[in-house]
Amino acid sequence: MPKPAPTTPDSTLKATGLRVTPVRVGVLGVLSKAAAPIDVPAILAKLPPGTDAVTVYRTLNTFTRKKLVHRVRGEDRSWRYAAGGAAAETERHAHRHPHFVCDACGTVECLSGAEIPRTLVRSLGVGAGYGVTYAEVVLHGVCPRCG
Amino acid sequence: MPKPAPTTPDSTLKATGLRVTPVRVGVLGVLSKAAAPIDVPAILAKLPPGTDAVTVYRTLNTFTRKKLVHRVRGEDRSWRYAAGGAAAETERHAHRHPHFVCDACGTVECLSGAEIPRTLVRSLGVGAGYGVTYAEVVLHGVCPRCG
DNA sequence: GGCCAAATGCAAGTCAGTGGCATTTAGGAT
DNA sequence: ATCCTAAATGCCACTGACTTGCATTTGGCC
Lengths: 147, 147
Hints:
homodimer, alpha+beta, 3-stranded mixed β-sheet, 5 helices, 5 strands, globular, DNA-binding
């Protein structure tokens, strides 16, 4: 039988036409294992000590441009990154999904299961001349841990 | 006949129990005249020269806490403020409304006319234990000027 | 192995926003 | 009208996220 489509950081990078370097492999690995979107300090903490923050910032910018990852903001002023942009493993996962922000502890979660209703943009009645690319939906509230 | 309910910065501040100071009156005035959410540098530019930025930051934090204004983020890393939080002139306007961000020029607009469907949060099927306070909806795209 | 654009690492800079503290002031009490 | 005090201001320095410049290293192709 054919290979079961491993989808390693390595293969993802090659498929996107990016060079395979330690930092890139590391960042992709961290993000694919993370349960929720995390910020740069958190990513850095899971990478080998001594990893340069600037390189990680540049790596994440590259990934975002290439749509290997997507980013969200919580209430604070930093970006949180999560694996799975448009070029994610399964094309089915390639849509924008809603997020949940806990305003108590600041954590952000992807509501990957949910889909933003296609009717939403329509129902808001945006004026003519506006070209809507996508809708961003962030639910604010309190998570079970802070409940 | 009775006074036609002027709703000046002065009256708004008094009604909220805040002291009436030049900076506060100025900030409220600027925001109430602004057509779209603007950031601190833009607010500062419309205030008398020499106005202290720190004071404006603190003023905006106070206003946000008291819900005299609301704030949104565009693609950049700064907050944009707009008049009209929960304690706005008309109570009818007191809901959270969707926003539009032009990813080309960075401007943000309030879609004040539109209402976020009450069914939205429900339809996303948030897990038990999550207490949703409100939903944030931001449409991304290109505005008529950049179209 | 050798080449070279791409990626990295380090220093330094930018920019939004905050904290500390002495001074001023709004506005109720007198 | 004057006094008093907590609240607000102004100024300084600071934090933290992110960027820019540049010299050095390296992935990947020949």
